[in-house]
Specification:
α7 packs across α12. This protein starts with 5 loop residues before the first strand and ends in a 16-residue tail after the last helix. β3, α3 and β4 form a beta-alpha-beta unit. It has two domains: about 130 residues, 3-Layer(aba) Sandwich (Rossmann fold); about 190 residues, 3-Layer(aba) Sandwich (Rossmann fold), CATH 3.40.50.180. It is of the alpha/beta class and about 375 residues long.
Length: about 375
Amino acid sequence: MLPRKIRVLIIDDSAVVRRMAADALSADPEIEVVGTAVDPYAARDKITELKPDVITLDIEMPRMDGLTFLEILMQRRPMPVIVMSSLTQRGSEHALEALRLGAFDVLGKPHGSFSFGELGIQLIAKIRAAAGATLRALPPPARPARRDAAASAQPKVPPAAVRTFDPRALILLGASTGGTEALKEVITRLPPNLPGIAIVQHIPPIFSRAFADRLRSLSALDVREAVDGDKLVPGVALVAPGNFHLMLQWQHDHYRARVTDGPQVWHQRPAVDLLFKSVADAGAGPHITAGILTGMGKDGAEGLLRLREKGATTFAQDEASSIVYGMPRAAWENGAAQKQIPLNQVADFITRQFAVRPGSRPAIAHPA
């Protein structure tokens, strides 16, 4: 008996995009495009009739926009949804809102009549992962203290609030599918008086800046999209730009960001492995806490192992709280992660690694 194919419904008001997506998916013998729809109203009936396993969804459509439809769908008939959004600032904000509403993942939408190319490969991979994933609702993040408009123009961390750490101390985080919401859960729970943080999230170009801005608005940290040459200091979190690798280089007494457009690693740019390995090569292991959150694939496992071998404290998100237990599984199975942690405990775990003992200077705590 032949295995059942993954049934996909494409929802997009552009006939060109519908055709390109269908043509790209036809390259995978395990995927079947069972139908297309020009808007949510047409999609509503086809979902009932065709019973798709995964939906691809445009955001900007006539009669009803994709975000409204997604919210209704996730309330009444939850299923994996891959959102395709335009590579613009507005499209980025819509994509992040779609992830908040429960979309499985997002892809940048192609322009005009251009071929899907690499985008088709990514779409196939995301659909295969979505079909095998268990939909889970992420817990709401802790509400950070709100600041008024005047205060928002000031630096996130007052100088007096920054503790003194070993200058090589760092927090490193990597994530992919499900990671934008998982990282929000972690970052919004972290206090500002921690060592610098570097983040690699697999995300399309343009989307990364909106993601960093969103985290900055919700947290006590100064979250920025990384720029080549940025100095990483306590209270600051740098997010790798979409389609660029982020690495860190030790210079005298601090880290500097290196942003490069080198070749993809594990079919990804940015790649978690490159960030992790760059820090391991800097010899800063004992002063590092690094972890891998939800995501498909194996990116980050090799770099995390190298960090652990250098003395870093390492962890992976546990299976029960992961949207996709791919990257965390790889890091656990190859021995890179010292422990697995539920998402809602990650922020507390990180904070404990840099606890201050009464009557002593700030010190880095390591698990026994």
